[in-house]
Amino acid sequence: MKKNVIYYVAMAIAVCATSCKNDKQAAQAAEAGDAVDVTEAPAPAEPETQEVSEEEMESQGGMYNPRDIARAWKRRVINVPGQGSDIVALFEAFYTEWPTVEGNRIVHMTNPQLAPESDLYEEGSDIDRKNGYVESVWYEGEPLGTISACVWKRKDGHKLFAVNFNVPMSQGKPFLCFYDFDPDRRTLTPENSPIKQEQLNFPDQDPLWYQLPKEGKTLEVVEKADEECVATTFYEFDGQNLKLARRQQSF
After folding, report:
1. How does pLDDT run across 206-233, given as a tens digit for each residue?
2. Do 172 and 207 meet the contact criterion of CB atoms below 8 Å apart?
3. CA distance linking residue 160 with residue 237, whole number of Å
């Protein structure tokens, strides 16, 4: 985890200046449907032609690019096989629907038959069944980002499941996928993000990255991280949903 935080800060310092200069471009991207989804209303359905073709999937080794998932994940309800409902069972179901190189490392360690070993990574994964958290850093000569996921138990017997893609700029923008797990139907149904753009320290800018809790119930939205300021917005799980807890700027 320490190495991941160091990576995030290094990435943020390099990206922050570009991000601050590109507000106009970010707004245009949002209109095109490529921005991070932090609004309450569901994003308009993309035309089915936006789906990745079989040829593209084959060229990517049968894997999705995170950018493809960001555009289409809300359109698919995921079935969860078997009887398990812990972080491993839910992440394996997500990976089956949305296989990625990033997720391959995690699932290879939990279910190697589902995810044969790939030669595109160099580091292991953090799999914490007790606290409901998984994470993997992926490399291609240098660290490019992380995928992580966590699960919260809801008061109504369901679970809130989140998958976090902190991706390099070449692959899009960081984004979160939120699902409700229904234990009776054994389905993961996409949910709107609880993160609201207007609640952030800098509502006119896209976040730099998200940090799911390995322990505890707090999700962090890191909006700015440079030599002058670190700005973070915190969301706390209240037993049913994530709610705005506080905003913080450290100078």
Report:
1. 999 999 999 999 999 999 888 788 999 9
2. no
3. 10
